[in-house]
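Folding Query — how this chain folds
Tokens — whole-number codes for backbone shape
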Amino acid sequence: QVRLVESGGGLVQAGGSLRLSCAASRITFSLYTMGWYRQAPGKQRELVASITYGGTTTYVDSVKGRFTISRDNANKMVYLQVNDLKPEDTAVYYCNARLVGSNQPYWGQGTQVTVSS
């Protein structure tokens, strides 16, 4: 069973930065597109950013220019650098792994990001 463990969340003031990390295990990393989702209270979970094994990235419009997703394939790590944080970025951030060609997702337990104004 794929295992994903997030870390790096916390409480920051608006304009601040965090680096979220996701450690993947029990996974053939090269076969998975990795992503970060977030879910705010009362809202649906949304895709924030994704990255293929080859490094192709996608971002939701609201975070473009502020967030950067990256992956370390040798160490099976995925990162989300979040800069210029806004109160509306407050959410639980989840790491996601999706096997290429499959709709089967795997999820971490989530890490809370809270941005105060």
